[in-house]
Each structure stands twice: as C-alpha cells, then as structure tokens.
Write a structure and sequence with these properties.
heterodimer, A: 112 residues, mainly beta, six-stranded mixed sheet, five-stranded antiparallel sheet, 11 strands, 54% strand, B: 112 residues, seven-stranded mixed sheet, globular
Chain lengths: 112, 112
C-alpha cells in the first residue's frame, strides 16, 4: 500500500522567512496530493492540493510542487506569519477507491 | 451548509469498556473515513465507508469496527478498551474520490 514520509517533524522559522515541508510517497500511481493545516485544538483543514497532471500550484503565500519522477511533493510558505504556526500534514491518494494516506505531520512555529 | 459533526466531543472510559462514536457527514457526501490521531503518529487510517459498505480498512485490531447507515451517518465502535486507545478520533467526509475531505472536530477519547 501507499506510504508517505514527511520531513521535518518540527520546523521553526523567523516571521517573514520561508518554510518548506517535504513529503515522499511510495506508490507511483498516486494521483492526488492534498495538504492540511491543523491549528491547536482544531480540525485539519485543506489548504492546498495538487493532482498528478500538474507540477506546481500556488495560492497567495502558499505553493505546492510535485516531482512525479522522484515521487516527492513539497509545501512552500513564503513571508511566514505567526498565524501560520500549526501542524501541517501531507497526504497521498492512490486511486479513487483507496483512502488518503497521511504523513506524520510537521509542527511549524513562526517566531515573531 | 452544515459541516461534519462528531459526537460526543469528549469521552472518558475505563479499560475493558466499549465505546461508540458518531459522525454525521456533510449532506450529500457518501464517503466517510475514520482516523486515529495520537501525538507523533499523525493520522492513522481506521476504515472508510461508502454507501453503507466498508470499502477500506486500516491496520487496526478487530476491536475497532464501524458501520454506515443509509443516511451516510457513520459510527465506530471500540470494544474492550485499552489505555493505548486514548486518542483523538477524527472522521472525514467527501463527495467523491479525489475530492476534498472535510474533517469533523473529533472525539477526544481518554481511557483510564
């Protein structure tokens, strides 16, 4: 089955700097890669997703890149703000009839 | 429209007891997945139901079971509770494959 590795597990950045979180997946047939943000005590919420026919997607300060050959995808947050502090989860979906498989999460702390 | 609703929000049980958690998906969503969240382990997949059928199952012991009703509401049951079952249990609903999964607030289960 699919396996998703996520790094780093914790990340601290200064406000205004960029943050990058990387994930690798095992199944080359995976075709959907969402990123979720979970603030303390709240539910995970989708912040951006990418499909296998696209190499990059941007939404304001966040972007996701996908390298299908290397089987990895990354989340990029620019101009970080304290409210970006949260746990971020990547996930991969192998096919329409299989569940999302999540990485173990990255705790991002943005220091003002 | 109403989001994913999980009840109860908090639960304290004694070892050996059993527990039932409920999840009401977003109206029109037929897929409901359950995840166990513990510190450092991320979101571990329990099972997924689609149109009242269990479509996928994760690597959890048989003490964990679930079902889905005709209105798409889902329940999960854990029998013979163990201390290690203490966790946040999240359910997520989605309209179809490869579309955004929406999470509920979760049920925080504490086994003493």
């Amino acid at each position: 089955g699919e396996n998703v590795e996520q790094h780093p597990s914790t990340l601290s950045v200064q406000e205004g700097d960029s943050a990058v979180i990387k994930c690798t997946y095992s199944d080359s047939a995976s075709n959907y890669f969402p990123w979720y943000k979970q603030e303390l005590g709240k539910r995970p919420q989708l912040i951006i997703d990418i499909r296998s026919n696209v190499g990059e997607k941007k939404d304001q300060r966040i972007a996701v890149t996908l390298n299908k050959t290397a089987k990895h995808f990354s989340l990029h947050i620019t101009e970080t703000q304290p409210e970006d502090s949260a746990v971020y989860f990547c996930a991969a979906l192998y096919s329409g009839n299989t569940p999302l498989v999540f990485g173990k999460g990255t705790r991002l702390s943005v220091i003002a | 429209k109403a989001g994913v609703t999980q009840t109860p929000r908090y639960l304290i049980k004694t070892r050996g007891q059993q527990v039932t958690l409920s999840c009401s998906p977003i109206s029109g969503h037929r897929s409901v997945s359950w995840y166990q969240q513990t510190p450092g382990q991320g979101l571990q997949f329990l099972f997924e139901y689609f149109s009242e059928t269990q479509r996928n199952k994760g690597n959890f012991p048989g003490r964990f079971s679930g079902r889905q009703f005709s209105n798409s509401r889902s329940e999960m049951n854990v029998s013979t509770l163990e201390l290690g079952d203490s966790a946040l249990y999240l359910c997520a609903s989605s309209l179809a494959a490869n579309t955004e999964a929406f999470f509920g607030q979760g049920t925080r289960l504490t086994v003493v």
